[in-house]
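User: Hi! I'm working on a homework problem where we have to compare a predicted structure to a textbook description. Could you give me the structure for the chain below?
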Amino acid sequence: MPYDPMTTPLPDGVKLIEGRRFGDNRGWFMELHRRLPSDDGALLPDFCQDNVSLTSQPAVVRGLHFQRPPHAQAKLVTVLAGAILDVVVDLRQGSSSFGRPTAVHLAASSGQHLFVPVGFAHGFCALQPETLVHYKVSAPYAPTSEGGIAWDDPDLGIDWPFTAAEILVSDKDALLPRLRDLAPIDWQLPRQRATATTSQPTRRRA
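Assistant: Happy to help. Predicted structure tokens:
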């Protein structure tokens, strides 16, 4: 079931942020991100890369993805068009929510953002055609550090809004392992500082 603020707390560090929209008869304006404290007074990390994915049809699942240190990523996720069921899984050994998936409904109509800290796998299922998702990340894409867990891992028991027969995933995501087959990850390893580059972006999994 999607996250319900009345019954289910978000995992430690995950934040659902209310965006401020300024509207009139022309439409509305909203800042996607400004480096100011969030509602609880904590600063979000420095983001170094912006990614956008377009999903043409409902029932497409992207994920569940993460990057290992030293290229571990925090993410700020915003839906620009359409709607998604956004899912995070805590991969931090020793956390009270380790291995527990949390699902949050995000829609362009709400203006909400989801902040996902380092130490979580992240993925989403498109709920509408032509769904456009924007996410800021705190470390650049690093193919040698990328990892993931299977969207249909039975130990996670994620309640996706479509049947397994309806869901479409990439060939690469279809090969992701179950959580229990992942080696423990030390999320405290130092992160590598991002450096500017003029090269073309590497083709990545999204």
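For your comparison, note the following. The chain has a mean pLDDT of 87. DSSP finds no helices and twelve strands in the chain. Good luck with the assignment!
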